[in-house]
Model the fold of this input.
Amino acid sequence: MKYLFRGGTVVSGRGTRRADVLVEDEKILRVARSITAPEAAVIDVEGQLLLPGFIDAHTHFDLDVCSTTTADDFFSGSRAALRGGTTTVVDFACPNKGETLHQGLELWHRKADGNCCCDYGFHMTIDDWNPGIEAEIDDMYAAGISSFKMYMTYPAMMIGDEAMYHALKKLKEKGGICGVHCENSGVIDALIAEKKAAGEMGVGSHPRTRPDFLEAEAVSRLLRIAQAVDIPVVIVHLTNEAALREVEAARKRGQRVYVETCPQYLVLEDSVYDAPEYSMAARYVCAPPIRKERDQQALWTALRKGEIQTVSTDHCSFTLEQKDAGRGDFTKIPGGLPGVENRGELLYTYGVTTRKISLATMCRVLAEMELAGCRVDKGALVSFGEMLSEKAAALEQNIYNMAGEEFNINSPKQLGEILFGKLGLPHGKKTKTGWSTNADVLEKLRYEAPIVGAVLEYRQYAKLKSTYADGLLKAMDPDGRVRTSFQMTVTATGRLSSTEPNLQNIPTRTDLGSEIRRMFIPAEGCVLVDADYSQIELRLLAHMAGDEAMIAAFRSGGDFHAETAAKVFHVAPDQVTHEMRRQAKAVNFGIVYGISAFSLSQDIGVSVAEAKAYMEAYFATFPGVRTYMDAIVERAREQGYVETLFHRRRDLPELKSSNFNLRSFGERVALNMPIQGTAADIMKLAMVAVRKRLRQELPEARLVLQVHDELIVECPEAQAETAAALLKEEMENVVSLSVPLTADAHWGRNWLEAKG
Done:
């Protein structure tokens, strides 16, 4: 059955917009400003918010604890979740002390399977560590469990520091992640003993035996253990400002730390434990306990700034009768609160409407959990920046020595006076601001004097340091990932553009610049899979021009540039030299962009006459291309626009201009836009197809970046070959042309390695 939700306000992690939503069988088919779907049942939601289904990553249904069982089983708990907008819960499979992980997982499957009203999954609790448990970790992964939990408190569940170290090492090996309940159990037990000795056994003693600094101490200790292992961890149900500061310190050290808090810590404060009526105070007993108002404010601020990644509930419900077991002894009160039904409305009421957080932030922490982004190796980037600074400093001194004086190398005016005034190097015209010292000018002078090459090298180091080494560090989020913004409508051809930061402009032309790609790394246990279209614009030119010779060349599957060189230079294929192929390649790509003979001569270092002869030989080899180019420009003059194969238009008023330069620009656009624009259209179609296949077949994999003709996917290492095949298949078959589209896919442990 299809449903059309009409006229609502659609909320995502990036903001809100008015839109219709078409849904079929629990899947969103389309989100657009206005959707027509006669076959769908229409639901008018004007004035309403439409949010993605929430995910609660921390629930405890049907849990035996404190000599009783939680009030909600999977049926009642999941019904409550759905009523509150939560469509997925992740519960904790908890083996009893001495049981195997297999036994714990089997028990939780018996509890949940066939009894859950919403989607569900499991984390696995590790409450012991021995060779048997370690061996079972591999089996857990095979069963689909990749996230775990450990406790630093509760005698029946807690695990010591040494065992935790070994467990984290094993999880790092598998690429897993662990959430940890952080409280200092030893000191808590001592404080409880003191309260018992003093006869202070009321509810008010509960928070006093579990103070905020003992949670902060345990958080600090966990993070140092994680630092020793070099693994990211999750702090579950963090409650207070002191613990947040420990997380902040770890992140400054370069650690990846994810933080969860819960609604009760955002909307309640510890005076609830001082209620005169026992049942009013006991209902709020949980561990860690409710904190003070200042901690509330610190948590809201951290949520707003993205320092807390998710709000889960730690849903662990008990009836008032069950809570009554602790009358006269607060240690016997079952600890836990409900929340799976009310989490969304609590965050909206106390967070969004009071402007503590935005609606988009609420959506991210409840539904999307984390936007993908690209993970960057912070340590490697820092080291790379330091190396660049050292090289730039050494070059700076060398340049001063060659100039015979110190000056501002970054000042075009001062540099021009040194190069052209003092050293007398050949120069162009002097402007009002001084001599031109741009890259083109200096490249022509590179071999005139050693100082020029040193300045160009210095500029390279300075650019890499400021734009990439420093720039990426500034753009890095606390989780170690860099998130760019993609724009659909900024470029004239329709290509996606990337800003803040621009991840589509990572340098590739030099070995040193290419090293930046080495800093882009996948999550633990994952790889990056990179798929790149091969010569897509030339293939589109062959298809759109209908040139039989060019079509045949691509269908043969050979080296197109080499085949072009053989035809243009009238030699046998095995006689094509590297230089011939280079020049043929420049002509091939230059034709696509409407290059002139003069520009081609500059690119390949030949005379204008030679460049013109190469182009004439090219058009003689592929006559259909010349015919197409003439026709497309003429049609553009008549129509006033050009369009892609998918009929996306670009108006070209420049073609009717009386200004020669403007008309020439319009002609180049008329040649280029249909080809480059169609390539952009195809890439967007491929992205949609790839994403759909990944969600269906490899849900752990995700698209993380698009760079022109290139898609990058992050996936578990075991899925690399499958993901590569999927990318190649979807990219090559997304459209049908007269020539084959080909895509090459490789994978590696960083972006540079994945380029193959």
User: Anything to note?
Assistant: Residues 660-697 form the longest helix (38 residues). Residues 537-679 form a domain with the DNA polymerase; domain 1 fold (CATH 1.10.150.20). Residues 484 and 501 are 5 Å apart (CA to CA).
